[in-house]
Amino acid sequence: MIRWLRSVLSVTNRPLHDRLMALISVAVASAVAITGIAAYLITTFAIYDQLDRELLAVADVTSVWIAGDAESLGGLNSEALSTANVTMMLVRSDGRVITPSGDGVKLESTSAELAIARTQIGTSSRTGVASDGETYRIVAVPFADLRAGEVEPVYYALVMGRPLAATDQILRILAFSLLTFGLLAVLLAGAIGWVIARSGLRPIQRLTEAVSRVTETDQLEPIEPGGMDELTDLTGAFNTMMRSLYSSRERQRRLIADAGHELRTPLTSLRTNVELLIADDRQGMLPEGARGEILRDIAAQLGEFTQLIGDLVHLSRDDKVEAHPEPIDLRDVLNNAVTRAKRRGPGLIFDVEMEPLYLVGEPDSLERAFTNLLDNAVKFSPPGGRIKVRLIGDRVRISDEGPGIADADLPHVFDRFYRSDHARTTPGSGLGLSIVAQTIKAHGGWVKAGRAGTGGAEFTVRLPGSAEPLDNSSETTGTIPAVTD
């Protein structure tokens, strides 16, 4: 078998099912052999150790029983000992052996028992053959007998044995069982290996051919084989197909998710305005001038739709924001974002304080980014809650009184499509904050998430700018300042 296995594994281009079957069979056979041998040895040691302990305990009790009458073994004879399934003898320190009366089994003494009788130190255990030809487990313990009228005690070794026929029978049954079931396990492993090799790999080969056909229809370059077996071909075809399909599917998924997330709120607002106009056309319910205001709001929302759809398509293509900057006052951007957020959170309190900050950037994309942050605050704020907006220096801080962000979620809140366990029950696709991070980064700044003093969420945005209005040179450069921290 070893020669066959070596020949199978030494050929690198041999079919994979042959190598797999051989490896499974050898692995199982090795494991069964090691486990069986270890189980047999451990069981044998445990049984013999337990038997020795029992015999030593009986010998200790017996030595106390016969103390003072050692020469007659305390009246014990062969019949009494055979009833207890043990046999016994005394080995005196002068070499004399005392055995029980009767025709019972006799043990043979050795130098080990004589040494124990003379030194009165330690115990011994061994396997020996008795007078009946049976194998016995034999132990010896020292004890001293002070007979009446003598000053010095007489030293003995009490030797006691028990037949091993029953124990050996148990071990033989164990060995036979381990060998039988081990062989069955090896045969079963070989059969399983054959089934896996012959049947399991056949679908994989068919899948490889299918993947190759899909790859070819996508006009990809041919795959260079990396080996001679089926899994190597499958890996190459699968990886190539996955790279192509993943890129295309990811762009589509992001476009759909971004559109669903970003268009939901303005679409609801636009629908509401249109329904108001329809209702007014039927009932004349709007006050004077309200109709024109609604129409202007609709026109603004349509322009926002156009810009937003263009940005979403662009995001889905290459994940980059192309800048068309102009000098802006960030206070105007924040005021517009706050105005939009107030319409979406009519019952909330907006606490706004702003210092001047002028920078070069895209007002529409920045307004959308801050609107996303404010929408997030509105979404998680309790009824009547307070949302704070602070523009101090080049930092913008937006905080709410909601449940806040868990520590485990803080490193991931700006990841695309990431949603915490708490946010899964709220509307959205987990994309708004990632758009915020991308927009702020495109303007040379950064955004961080943390906890507010009230326990809610707090977002800090840093944008490079100046407290003084920018001159025309900044407008003509058409560049966004870099971070100078």
The fraction of residues in strands falls at 15-25%
- Let me know the number of strands: 12
**Roughly how many Å is the radius of gyration?**
46 Å
**Mean model confidence by pLDDT:** 78
Structural class: alpha+beta
Number of domains: 3
- Give the helices and strands as they follow along the chain: HHHEEHEEEHHHEHEEHEEHEEH
Taking pLDDT < 50 over at least 5 consecutive residues as the criterion, the unreliable ranges are 318-322, 473-485
Helical stretch count? 11
Dominant shape: elongated
Helix proportion range: 40-55%
Q: How far apart lie the N and C ends?
A: 71 Å
Largest sheet features: 5 strands, antiparallel
Strand order of the largest sheet: 2-1-5-4-3
Write the layout of secondary structure elements.
Blueprint: H1 2-10, H2 16-66, H3 78-83, E1 87-92, E2 97-98, H4 111-119, E3 124-129, E4 135-145, E5 154-163, H5 165-217, H6 230-283, H7 290-318, E6 326-329, H8 330-344, E7 349-354, E8 358-361, H9 363-380, E9 386-392, E10 395-399, H10 432-442, E11 446-451, E12 457-462, H11 472-477
Helix pairs in contact: 2-5, 5-6, 6-7, 8-9, 9-10
3D structure, described in words:
The protein is α+β, with helices and mostly antiparallel strands. It folds into three domains: 194 residues, no CATH class; 103 residues, Helix Hairpins, CATH 1.10.287; 157 residues, Histidine kinase-like ATPase, C-terminal domain (Heat Shock Protein 90, 2-Layer Sandwich), CATH 3.30.565.10. Helix content is 54%, strand content 15%. It is built from eleven helices and twelve strands. The strands form three sheets. The protein has a five-stranded antiparallel sheet. The chain has a five-stranded mixed sheet with strand order 7-9-10-12-11, covered by helices on one side. Strands 6-8 form a two-stranded antiparallel ribbon. The longest helix is centred in the middle third of the chain and has 54 residues. The chain is elongated, with a radius of gyration of 46 Å. The C terminus is likely disordered.
